[in-house]
């Protein structure tokens, strides 16, 4: 079935399919701005919050100018505003990073649960990008491969949870901003590469690829 397909089509990299570098980098700028404003303002959370929101607005405007979706821009801006309000409410600069910590906890749980119920989120995301909706679930090999590769994404979120959690507990504001940058695109890239390797490693050599889900030979072989 796969003999007529180019090998590069059968083995497309997840990085080329999912991208994400610009989004990850843009998301790192407001936290850095918060810490810079906090330091310049002599540990003023108000200065930090204002700097983060201003930078978020600028980043959003640039993204819109480049054809970005307004919904995604508004969600990013809202996340920064919420983080700033939490820090202002608690009076702890380190709490600006609390939503990020909690979101990674939620993401790790969501991805793990998706694997257990055999709806691995990596398959859901890739299927959406490829316009397949849920057709990939008719392919037992793809379901199995997406499930195993999704554990790499669970590990990614757990790394952030551990690092952010330790630094948040230590009230290490500057270190958190550094970790926020270091664990954005570099970690995302590593996750894409490793999960892509796991994904294709788990597929049979003659599988036609992510774009071509196959159906089991008989109903008894369905997942």
Automatic annotation (TrEMBL):
An example of a Pfam family matching this protein is DUF3159
Transmembrane feature ranges? 45-64, 71-89, 109-130, 151-170, 182-203
Q: Does the keyword Iron apply?
A: no
Superkingdom of this protein's organism: Bacteria
Q: Which UniProt keywords apply?
A: Membrane, Transmembrane, Transmembrane helix
Annotated protein name in UniProt? DUF3159 domain-containing protein
Q: From which source organism is this entry?
A: Saccharomonospora glauca K62
